[in-house]
Sequence to fold (589 residues):
Amino acid sequence: MSPNYLLKRLLMIVYTLFVVSLIVFAITQVLPADAATMMLGENATPEALSALRQTMGLDAPIYMQYVHWLGHLLQGDFGHSLRTNQPVGPAMFAALGRSLLLALLSIGLMLVIAIPLGIIAAVRRGKVADMLVSLVSYLGVALPEFVTATVAVLVLADWLKWLPPTGYVPLTEDFFGAIAHLVLPVCVISVILIAHVSRMVRSELVDVLHTDYIRAARLKGVSGRTVLWRHALRNALLPTITIVALDVGYLLGGVIVVEEIFAIPGIGRELIVAIQARDLPAIQAGVLIMAATYSIVNFVADILYAWLDKRIQYD
Amino acid sequence: MIEFLKRLLGTPQGALGLFIVLLIVAVVVFGPVIATHDPEQMSILSRYKAPSASFWLGTDQYGRDIFSRLMIGARATVVMAVLATIAGTLIGALIGTTSAFLGGRADEFIMRTVDAVMSIPSLLFALLVVNLLGSSTVNALVAVAIAFAPGMARITRSVALSVRKQDYVNAAIARGESSAFIIRREMLPNVIAPIIVEMTIRVAFAVMLFATLSFLGLGAQPPAAEWGLMVSEARQYMHLSAYILIWPSVAIAITAIGFNLLGDGLRDALNPRT
Fold:
């Protein structure tokens, strides 16, 4: 991996964030009411409005407002929430931390289930296990998170009373209580990921099992198990990294819905609250942080992939 | 055409998918005729009923017939999803084909920008657009279309790049045709097949995205019989009758599975080699 490639990838992240910042800024410009009207309400006097606009810099030309806003962003200042009047940045990053916990646990659970499932389906292609995996993956793709979440709450929390229905407990406060509250949301988020990834692992492994080097290994008398573990899986599992990274987009979308349903104070719920309240600085910060998370995860995945697969030489 | 249909029906996914999708189309077209009750007629005496001879799937929290609501709601859910997917695909296909045709720096610039837009999750993008335009069904349609365009642009571009190398495109360039003519008349028709496959699968996503928007209160508004909205309203009353929750969920799932299966079947039928 050349330093050139690294530099190019880093520049791409910068460009991505620049485009996202333009989109986010444009969206807040199109809104019929500006920030001053929102703070003072519909019945504010024109004098009060223009005075506030002047202090907030809203009377400047639009491109100057953008440059001003971007300048503050680069210094880590996301502005103050119109709703709570608190700095938006720290609140959003704290919320992101809670969401990342949810996301990482979901990815962990997904890997533990999806990879063995995909391997079994590929090895026993056309058998009952394979059919079962494709059935599960179709179901997983066909059920939106809000349906699985609602049904899960109804069955596991309301009927069986195994788990608490909604709410969030910090890990540091009550460890087991926190885990109990996280089980349902994590399961719901993993369903779609499991469906997607197990299907990908299956098709990759099926392809690899048909290559010449696997046939060669079989012909020289290597046992089936060794062929699978030493030769096939290594090559079949690599693309999974890229797929998981791309799935982070779905994951972030899913997190929004799941946090809303389970009342978890993560970045998704913060964003929904901000969107409903038209809290512009909070919306801007939330969308930028989500886009940055997605870009960074994909960057790390690319690097990891290139590092693990020596055949790939980027320049 | 007959040959193609035979291939499609030859795969289990294609046959089942086509059957489900035709069933859905039938419901969309004849829904109001099939419905046994007025979908908005409330009745205090017959609330939370289990399925019976008169209410085939039971009744909801206002005593409305769930079966009739599902039949009527198919239009709001499925037609909107199909329209949004088509609109998003058209925008995306145009961007992708143009990018592939121009090539070089312009292609690099367009694709990096598309990648950048894709870093915003499509649900979040749709939420932002709907919030901006105000929550209504039409605005939700625009939102989903815009959210789908970048992904479709990416897929179209990769297909179009292989078409770009074909002799008939070079011939058109040699003839001195304008770029717009070549993109519209020579390239677009040849990238359509793989795009239709992708579009079919995306309808399933659109159904779910619409349902999610309605569920979050930003799509269809009550008393519409939109399926996602029905699930959302059912949440408060699901302790009293699980049927209110289950049937619209099943309807969403069947629709999504149907379009997914049909997409997979079409893919196999269009690429006989794999």
Q: What stands out?
A: The two ends of chain A are 7 Å apart (CA to CA). DSSP finds twelve helices and no strands in chain A. The mean pLDDT of chain A is 81.
